Amino acid sequence: MSNLLKDFEVDAKNPSLEARQRWRSSVSIVKNRARRFRMISNLETLAENDKKRCQIQEKIRVAFYVQKAALQFIDAGARTEYKLTDEVKQAGFYVEADELASMVRNHDTKSLKHSGGAEGIAQKVSVSVAEGVRSSELHIREKIYGANRYAEKPARSFFTFVWEALQDVTLIILMVCAVVSIGVGVATEGFPKGMYDGTGILLSIILVVMVTAISDYRQSLQFRDLDREKKKINIQVTRDGNRQEVSIDDLVVGDVVHLSIGDRVPADGIFISGYNLEIDESSLSGESEPSHVNKEKPFLLSGTKVQNGSAKMLVTTVGMRTEWGKLMETLSEGGEDETPLQVKLNGVATIIGKIGLGFAVLTFVVLCIRFVIDKATSGSITQWSSEDALALLDYFAIAVTIIVVAVPEGLPLAVTLSLAFAMKQLMRDRALVRHLSACETMGSSTCICTDKTGTLTTNHMVVNKVWICENVKERQEETFQLNLSEQVKNLLIQAIFQNTGSEVVKDKEGKTQILGSPTERAILEFGLLLGGDVETQRREHKILKIEPFNSDKKKMSVLTSHSGGSVRAFCKGASEIVLKMCEKVVDSNGESVPLSEEKIAKISEVIEEFASEALRTLCLVYTDLDQAPSGDLPDGGYTLVAVVGIKDPVRPGVREAVQTCQNAGITVRMVTGDNLSTAKAIAKECGILTAGGVAIEGSTFRNMPPHEMRAILPKIQVMARSLPLDKHTLVNNLRKIGEVVAVTGDGTNDAPALHESDIGLAMGIAGTEVAKENADVIIMDDNFATIVNVARWGRAVYINIQKFVQFQLTVNVVALIINFVSACITGSAPLTAVQLLWVNMIMDTLGALALATEPPNEGLMKRQPIGRTASFITRAMWRNIIGQSIYQLIVLGILNFSGKQILNLEGPDSTAVLNTIIFNSFVFCQVFNEVNSREIEKINVFKGMFNSWVFVAVMTATVGFQVIIVEFLGAFASTVPLSWQHWLLCIVIGAISMILAVGLKCIPVESNSHHDGYELLPSGPSDSA
User: To which H or E segment does residue 478 belong?
Assistant: First the structure.
C-alpha cells in the first residue's frame, strides 16, 4: 500500500508547493470535488492572494521611501484640504477620518507638525492623553471613525452545504435514472406503482444529501468558532483615567494604547512617549530591518510588531481604513493547509475508487450480457419493450450505486470531522489549535521542550528570601522584617521602583494593581511591602533611558537623573551575570564598600543556597555616573544592593502530567533561563530530571562540537541559562535525529524555535502576540497538563480514523463482491440502488460521526508515539477487515444462493422476503462491526462506549431507521415486512461477527508494534482486556 501512496505524502508543517500540487493531480476518482476539497487550500487562490499581498506591500514600501522624500518638497498649503463635515462637528471632533488615515499612511510629518503633534491630534479627536477615551464616547467614535474590524467573507448558509452535497456526480446520475425510471414505470405499470422504484431512489438521495449537509454545516460552525477564538487579541489601554485590558476589536480612534515587546500594533497611530521603540514592519513592507519610532519618526502602522522597547501610542485609524485591513482581506481566503492524514486518505480513497469503478463497470457489463443471453435463449432478442429498457436502467442504477458505495469519499472528510471535533473539545480544555495539522502531529510527538515559568510553575511569584547587608531575611506571611537603616532602605526602594518595566495602577474600584511580567510584579509587590511609593519615586527621579529586559543579556537597566543634576544607573538580572558587574556592595550604613573575593564567594554561596531551594535569584545593583552615556549603559562598576530569591511554586498536577508523558514514551525536557541549581531543583520536583539524565547550561551546549552534541542530545533533560538561540539549536538537532518535537515559547525571541519545531506551543497568558502568531497551538491557561491533553487528543484522532477506515473498507469489500458475484451467477444484484444508498450513508457520514469523534481513553498514553513512517493501515486492521469480509460474504452468499431452501421460503413473495433478509442481515453485520471497530486489538469493545453519546446516538438512529425501512417503506426500498423469527435471525447473523472478532484478535499478526502504529512500552500495562 505504501508504494501506491508515494504521491500522497506531504510534510505536516510548511509542505512544499510541489508535493501539494502532486497529490492534487493524483486524485482521479472524485464523486464530489467541491465537497472533497472544501477544507483544502486552493493553490490558485493562494497564488492570487500572494500577488495581491505583494502589490499592497509594494504600495506601502513606496509610501515609506518615495512619498516621505517627496513630502519634503511639497508646500503644506498645496496639500489636499479635507472639509470638516457637519456630522464630525456635531460629534465634537475637529478632524476627518480620511485626513488622519492619509497622514499616518503617508508618514506626513509636516501635516502632523502643523496639527500640533500627537497632543494636537489628541485635541482634535477630543481626548486627553493622560485620561484616555471615556467609555461613554465609544459608540459615537465608532460611528464617526469606524470600528477596528476587518472585512470577512460572509458565513456560508445551510442551503450552501445542501447545494454542495448535490454536486456529487453519482447522485446526479442516479437522479436522472430515477426520473427516467418514474417516466417509464408510470407508462408501463401505471400510477402509482410505476413510481415506487424511482421515487425510492429520489427519497434516498434527499436523505443522503440532508444528512451530509447537516454534518458539514455543523462542522463549519465549529471551525467558525475556532476562527473567532484565534482572532481574539487583547491590548492594554488607558480609558476613563484607568489602565485596562480590552479586545483590539473594541479599539476606537483616540484610544491611548500601551505597547511592549512582542505586541502587534493594533491600529494605525502616533507615538506619544516611550523608550527604545523598534518596530518590525516586514509583515507590511517586506523590509526585514526594524524601524526606530520616536518623536521625530512617530508613525505606527497596524499589523507591525514591537521588536524592542515600550511606548504609548494614540490611535488615529482603525479597521478597513488601515493598510493592514486591506491586507487581511487576502489573508482570510484560500482555505487551510492539508494535513498528512488527509492527503494519505485521499490516496486510499483514490485507489479504492479505481477498484470500485472497475467492479461497477464489470457488474453492469455482466448484467447486460446475461440479460441479452436470456432474451436470445427465450427467442425474444428482436423484441424490445419498455420493460426491457427499465431493466437495463435498473442495472445502470445499480452500477452507479456501486460506485457511490465503492468510492470512500468519507475517508479524507472523516479526518477533517475528527480534527474539528478534537479542536472544539481542546478549546473547552483551554488549548486553541491554530493549524489543523498540529493536532494530528501532536499524536506523534516524541519530545516536549518546555519552559519552566508559568508552564510547570504557577506563575504567581513572590519574593520569598532576600540577602541584604550580609543578612538573609525570609518572608513572614505578608511582611518582611529587614531592620534596615533609612539610607539602605531608600537605595533598595529606588532600585526596585526606578528599574522596572511594570506599572502600579488603580483599577475602577480603586484597588492597587500591578501590571507586568510575574517577576516584575513580585519585585514591585516586595517594594510596596517595604512602604515604597511608585508615584513619589517617579516624581523625584526622571528616567532618561531604558534598556528593557532581554533574553540574551538576561538583565534590565535604566538611567535616571537625580536632584542636583547627578545621574544614576540601575541594573537587575540573573544573579551570577550581574554579580560579575559589581565592584562594591552596600553596607548596613548605606555606604559603598569594596567587594572582596571573600565576599563574592560568600554571596555566591547565598545565591547557590537560594537556587537549591528552587528560588529564582536576581541581583539589584546601581552605579553613580558623572554624565549620561551616549551609547549603552555601563557593564561594570556597579554597587550590589541586594539579592532576592523569588519563589514560583510548581503547578498542582504537573508531576503526574510529566509521568503520563514518560509512560507514553514522550521525553520532557525543561529549557529555562534560570541558573542550573534552580533548574535542577524544579526539574526534580516535577519528575523531569531522572537518574541518568543530564542537566546542562546553554553556554556549554552551544559551544560543543557537533559529534559531542549528538552524543549527549538524547540524555539532556534540563537546559539552564539558555538563550532563545539555544532552544532553536536544541530543537533543530533533535529533529535531525528523528525526534518529533513540540516546543513551548512565550517571548518574541522564541518565534524561531516555535517555527522550526514540529509543533509550536505558545502560552496564552504570558505569551506575546509574536510568539502566538508563530505557534501551531496556543495553551490558553499556560498549563503543562493542557499540553499533555493536546497529545492525548492527537493520538485519539489518529486511532479514530483507523477505526473508521477499518469499518468502511469492510463494507466496501463486501458490498462490491456480493453484488458482482451475484450479478455474474444469478443475473441480478441482491442489494438495490436504494438499499445501497442507505448502506453508503451508514458507512460514510454516520460511520464517520460515530467512530471519528470518540473521546480519548487513558490507554492511548500508555504506548509509544506513532512513528513518522508507520503504516496507517496496519496488519491487525487487514486481519480484521479480511476476517469480517469473509464471514459476511459466506453468510450472505449462502443466503443468496440457498436461502429459500434453508429458511423454507415458499410462495410468490419468497424472493422478496429473501432479499429483505439479505439486506437486513447485511445492515446488522455493519452495525455490529461498527461496535467491533471501536477497538482494533482489544477484546472489550464496550469499555467507554456509553461515554460517547454521538456513537450511541448514531447506533440507535441506524437501527431505528432500518426498522422503518424494512417494515414501512417497502414500496420504495424493495423490502417486505419480516416476521420476528426472521428479525432475530438477522440480528444473530450480525451478532456472530462480534464473537468472530474475539477470535480474530487472538491471531497474532504483529510482533513489536501495536495495531494503531504505537510501540508498546516494555513496562506498559497489559493490553489484553
Answer: none
Residue in the block written with cell 511591602: 529
| pLDDT classification of 1025: cutoffs 50, 70, 90 | very low
As given in the structure block, the three cell numbers for residue 254 are 483616540
Strands 567-574 and 555-561: antiparallel
Same domain, 915 and 978: yes
Q: What is the predicted pLDDT for the residue at 65?
A: 60
How far is 58 from 248, CA to CA, in rounded Å? Answer: 26
Q: How far apart are CA 428 and CA 788, in angstroms?
A: 15
Q: What is the pLDDT of residues 177-199, one digit of tens each?
A: 888 888 877 877 778 777 887 88
Q: Is 1015 domain-assigned?
A: no
Q: Containing domain of residue 127, as a range?
A: 88-147+250-334
**Same domain as 614, residue 502:** yes
Beta strands at 638-647 and 462-468: parallel, antiparallel or unpaired: antiparallel
Of 800, 835, 805, the closest CA to residue 408 belongs to 805
Task: Enumerate the H helices of 127-232 as residue ranges.
Answer: 138-145, 158-165, 169-189, 196-230
Show which of 645, 661, 677 is a domain's final residue.
645
* 161, three cell numbers: 452545504
- The pLDDT-based confidence of 496 (bands split at 50, 70, 90) is very high
For residue 562, the surrounding DSSP H or E stretch is none
Q: How confident is the model at residue 1016 (pLDDT cuts 50, 70, 90)?
A: very low
- The answer, yes or no, to whether residue 587 has pLDDT greater than 70, is yes
> For residues 661 and 86, what is the distance between their CA atoms, to the nearest angstrom?
65
Residues whose CB falls within 8 Å of the CB of residue 1019, separated by 6 or more in sequence, listed in order:
none
Tell me the CA distances in angstroms from 988 to 509, 917, 921, 925, 992, one per residue in order: 70, 12, 9, 9, 6
Per-residue pLDDT reduced to its tens digit, 857-915: 888 898 889 877 778 888 999 999 999 999 999 999 999 889 999 999 988 889 899 99
Assigned C-alpha cell, 816: 462490491
One domain for residues 577 and 655: no
Tracing cell 515559547 back to the chain, one arrives at 745
> What's residue 962's pLDDT?
94
Is the domain of 763 the same as that of 820?
A: no
Question: What residues are labeled active site?
Answer: 451
